């Protein structure tokens, strides 16, 4: 096909593009994969039985605010990196600040607790499964995030993959917080954060192969 | 704003609103810029891929045009896509090449018809310089010989080669200034 033919074809196919098209694609992709992840959590792990009483406690809301803020920063990063020349430096800084903040909270709680309570604050009762569960819950989200990027134009694929992974991990940890009954801040600071970073790493590695266009 | 940017951006905004006529003009214009851009960056053995890259870039522009943010420069956006396609081409073909950190300016700096016209202008200007200076400028500035080489082959001292080149260029500069004044 000659370039002139191609131009004629593309011109013939032209349709108006709404200004919000990218945002809409991000919303559709993350919305539907959030539904998938939440459904998976509900049938596989189940909601925490004490949800109603937990909602009256600070740790529940600390977990909620932490994971929700990470999820928002991650989804925003995903939207930004979907554009050519997109940069997620601000988002990474924001996520870094949130991680530092929860780290400080965890450290303060450790400092105020008696030494014999430290081990439980760090490992809770679900240390062996917490991060793994979050990573599993992040997989549908990662697929959704990759689908979003596949129709857009990220030019730095490793960074784009990392953004997709971090967003997926953060949203998955938000979903997981409705199942998990842990309430120690050091636990959240370590294992939840790891649950966000591991999908970020998976995304970064997969990005340069999966996201090519 | 740079006039090329202003013109192309206007065409792009109209295209995003569905104006097929502007889109046709835009794509034709970009095809020329892109062809020149890729030709310059491909090694001789791969020059034949330039047209494929132009088409791939135009396709990418088409399918991903929603990612153009209207408050950003259009030329920078398109350049990022073209550069991505070029690097992807190198990767796919396992060509080890370094893509210089160029910017959008280079994609839109010139097109081929201008380059040909420039060459003709140079020839014409050189004709207006005294024969001796013309020869020296030709050897040093166009053929790229060093001052020492030219001095040796002409039997002049290096200093007089430099002076000769300098005088010739001064004469050309004076003529260009005069020419510009005449145009006004």
Automatic annotation (TrEMBL), chain A:
Keywords: Membrane, Transmembrane, Transmembrane helix
Coiled coil: none
InterPro entries, per the entry: NrsF
Membrane spanning residue stretches: 26-45, 60-78, 90-113, 125-150, 157-178, 190-211
Protein name from the UniProt record: DUF1109 domain-containing protein
UniProtKB/TrEMBL annotation, chain B:
Key word DNA-binding present: yes
GO biological process: DNA-templated transcription initiation
InterPro entries: RNA_pol_sigma-70-like (IPR039425), RNA_pol_sigma-70_dom (IPR014284), RNA_pol_sigma70_r2 (IPR007627), RNA_pol_sigma70_r4_t2 (IPR013249), RNA_pol_sigma_r2 (IPR013325), RNA_pol_sigma_r3/r4-like (IPR013324), WH-like_DNA-bd_sf (IPR036388)
Domain RNA polymerase sigma factor 70 region 4 type: 120-171
Domain RNA polymerase sigma-70 region: 31-94
GO function terms (MF aspect): DNA binding; sigma factor activity
Keywords assigned by UniProt, alphabetized: DNA-binding, Sigma factor, Transcription, Transcription regulation
Record Pfam families: Sigma70_r2, Sigma70_r4_2
Claim: Ion transport is one of the keywords in the record: no
NCBIfam families in the record: PRK12539.1, sigma70-ECF
Family: Belongs to the sigma-70 factor family. ECF subfamily.
Protein name: RNA polymerase subunit sigma-70
Organism: Phyllobacterium endophyticum
